[in-house]
Amino acid sequence: MPSSPTDQPRTPRLEEIRTKEDLLPWRRADQLTSCALYWLPMAAPPAPEGQRKWQIEFYDRLTAALAESRGLRAESFLQMKTLEPNLMNDFLRFARELNPVMGLSRKPGADLPRLPTMDDIRPMQQNQAGFNFGDWMGDYSYWFVAKQERRQRELFFGHGGMTTIFLPPDPKTEAPEVNIPPAVAEHAVFKRWFSKDFDPSAMHQQSYALLDDFLEKSVKYFGAGLEDDPQYPGLLYVLPLLTTREFFGAKPETIGEWFEIFDGYLTESPSDKGALLALAEDSDEMIMDILLAMREEGWVYPEL
User: Fold this and answer.
1) Smallest Cα–Cα separation from 56: which of 156, 161, 147?
2) How much is the pLDDT for 84?
3) C-alpha 71, offset from chain centre
4) Exposed, middle or buried, 70 (CB in 10 Å: 0-12/13-18/19+)?
5) Exposure pattern of 204-239 as b/e (b: 16+ CB <10 Å)?
6) Which of 60, 122, 187, 216 could form an S-S bond across to 5 if both were Cys, CB 3.0 to 4.6 Å?
7) What does the buried/exposed string (b/e) look like for 87-124 if buried means 16 or more CB atoms within 10 Å of the residue's CB?
8) pTM strictly above 0.70
9) Which sign does the torsion angle of CA 209, 199, 141, 230 carry?
10) For residues 243, 264, 146 and 156, what is the CA-based torsion angle, rounded to 10 degrees?
11) Per residue in 179-221, pLDDT tens?
């Protein structure tokens, strides 16, 4: 099966008449007019390998199309609660390469869980069923500062916890070039501490990524109401946890405010039994172009 993304989506011929079937396996929520919301059916995590590979390929092409046509960049996140039982080993093994930074994930308006009391903890102390530590932990996530979307999806996608947001460029995140003198680069001590997986130039670029406007904006907007919580001052970002319930339950002006923070939102949504893609602009033609090119190359999505 082919695996390399096309550089440019195929341009449809003028005589082509497209229908909703051309969007399949994606379905668009036509009744929602505040944004373009699409749903893709997906098996319960961990997803079958066929669905995983098809979606990784599609998202590679979508990311490239959004970058080319709208100048957007992708930022990837992974929910902490999905690391167990299958992802923790890979997460720890590749953490230095991917540079994960922890922040808060939150459903709009949700409170953080209260701290457990001794009565809550006692079943665990007595080795009894009934205590689940995850029930008392907030929805934290990791933002991958290293820009390796394909690698991150290959490692972690399909377990119900990946989210990607699409943002416009931020000049503050563009790091100046680092010039390392050849004598320094060839020194034994330098080679000992740095490698292709621990590159000082990449570290320099990643440090500038922490200046991203999204971080502060997300805390102010999606963290609203938590200002008195002791954790609030230390929050680097707040990633919204959005499902179809949030999209259909929100007022149009609220959805408009979300899309002032980001231009696109892509997430695995186990509660929706699928994946969600929300974009500020109508994107039917772009998605159809990608899907048509994939079909012509033999890609078939295995719906179960």
Assistant:
1) 156
2) 87
3) 18
4) middle
5) ebbeebeebebbebbbeebbeebeeeeeeeebebbb
6) 60
7) beeebeebeebbbbbebbbbebeeebeeeeeeeeeeee
8) yes
9) negative
10) 40
11) 555 665 565 655 555 555 555 555 545 555 677 899 999 999 9
* Least confident window among 35-44, 110-119, 229-238: 110-119
**202 token code pair:** 């990449």
Could you tell me the two tokens for 242? Answer: 């959005």
pLDDT band at 18 (very low <50, low <70, confident <90, very high): confident
Assigned token pair, 279: 């974009």
The amino acid present at 212, given as its one-letter code, is: D
- What lies within 8 Å, CB to CB, of 98 at 6+ separation is 144, 145, 146, 148, 151, 152, 155
End-to-end CA distance of the chain: 19
Of the candidates 223, 217, 247, 293, the residue with the CA atom closest to the CA atom of residue 62: 293
